[in-house]
Amino acid sequence: MQALYAQLLVGLINGSFYALLSLGLAVIFGMLNIINFAHGALYMMGAFCAYFLLHLTGIGYWWALLIAPIVVGIFGMILERTMLQWLAGLDHLYGLLLTFGLALVIEQALRIVFGAAPLAFSIPPELRGQLFIGDFVYPRYRLIIFAIAIAAVTATWFIVYRTSFGRVVRAGVQNPDVVGALGISLAPYMTAIAALGVGLAGLAGVLLAPIAGVHPAMGAEILTAAFVVVVIGGLGSFWGVIAAAMLVGVVRGITIYFNPSWGEASMYLLMALVLLIRPRGLLGERIMKFE
């Protein structure tokens, strides 16, 4: 039983990884109504940006952790101003095709600059080692990621649901004509939301780089998992994504405990089960043509 409890806690920690990976994807869909297929590429860009800052400029890990998401967020603002804003009101297929093309361009550009081979990105010396919690032993770095993920989720929730900025954005999503009639331009708010969602992807890339490695295919490796979490939680649902991320982490942890070979497949089986029972996801809005 102690081993099972330890695996459950590991599942919750892994769930925080999934929450951090998927939160930016959910924010962009919920606020901009765009299925961002470039999410994995932007996550990869955050990792490569941190690698560049660490190895070519010599700044410390914590500065790289701060600067890289900001750089990726600024890139997201440029994307929103030059491309994504023109997709407002169009079918989701246009956004999917555009962001899929962007993902290919970003991946190939980084492959040309840095090469296809994995790059060395080790855990900072001060974050290495293990922590003992009772009878359990956990890597110090994964616990740091867990704490940062909780802080990022809390900050995002506060911005979206407890600030005047978030109220304007949510009102604009529900009824942009009324917001426009009040003399409020939604364009800068939508650009800021794009920066927030893309910056979260960059933050996830920096944090997971020492674990997943830094290479041009790393974005494709996490994209499916991020979409699975968003679909299970419900498209556009903030708390649905968080609940789904924790559920996926725990289910994977328990599955690996009993049968390690089924760990990867368990989240897809979970998604199928949830969609059979609730086609809109755990906390998604009801879709009349399905239910």
Explain how this protein is built.
It is a single chain. A hairpin with a 2-residue loop joins strand 1 and strand 2. The protein has a single domain (2-277), classed as ABC transporter involved in vitamin B12 uptake, BtuC (Orthogonal Bundle). The chain is mainly α and 291 residues long. It is built from 11 helices and 2 strands; from the N terminus they run ααααββααααααα. The chain has a two-stranded antiparallel ribbon.
- The CATH topology is ABC transporter involved in vitamin B12 uptake, BtuC
Fraction in beta strands: under 5%
If strands are numbered along the chain, what order do they take across the biggest sheet? 1-2
| Total domain count | 1
* Average pLDDT figure: 87
The whole-angstrom Rg is 19 Å
Q: What order do the SSEs take from the amino end to the carboxyl end, as H and E?
A: HHHHEEHHHHHHH
The computed structural class is mainly alpha
Give the number of DSSP strands. Answer: 2
Spatial separation of the terminal alpha carbons: 40 Å
Helical residue percent band: over 70%
Tally of contiguous helical segments: 11
Which descriptor suits the 3D outline? globular
Topology, element by element:
Elements: H1 2-32, H2 39-57, H3 61-82, H4 92-114, E1 130-133, E2 136-139, H5 140-161, H6 164-174, H7 176-181, H8 187-212, H9 218-233, H10 238-258, H11 263-277
Antiparallel strand pairs: 1-2
Helix pairs in contact: 1-5, 1-8, 1-9, 1-10, 2-3, 2-4, 2-8, 2-9, 3-8, 5-6, 9-10, 9-11, 10-11
